[in-house]
Structure prediction request, 89 residues.
Amino acid sequence: MPRSRTLALIWSTAARADLIRLREFIEPHNPEAARSAAQALKKATGLLVRHPGIGKRLEGRQDRELVVPFGQRGYIIRYRLDEDAVVIV
Prediction:
């Protein structure tokens, strides 16, 4: 059985800014939750680069989204597949 290849991971400028805003919002209130959220997102992006088709394709768009369970609601990672990369948008 062939192994899936691992793609590169690219964070857009907007996605990086969202990640920073998330950390800055959570960390003052609950540093442990901020660390846990970062770990959950890191684990999810690690899965995406190995299995990029797992996210739901958005109707009429090239973007996909992956729901990352966390707390009572979770986070959504919106991404696009490039030839050799997963681009977090």
Notes: Residues 44 and 68 are 7 Å apart (CA to CA). The chain has one domain: 8-88. The domain at 8-88 is CATH 3.30.2310.20 (YaeB-like fold). The radius of gyration is 14 Å.
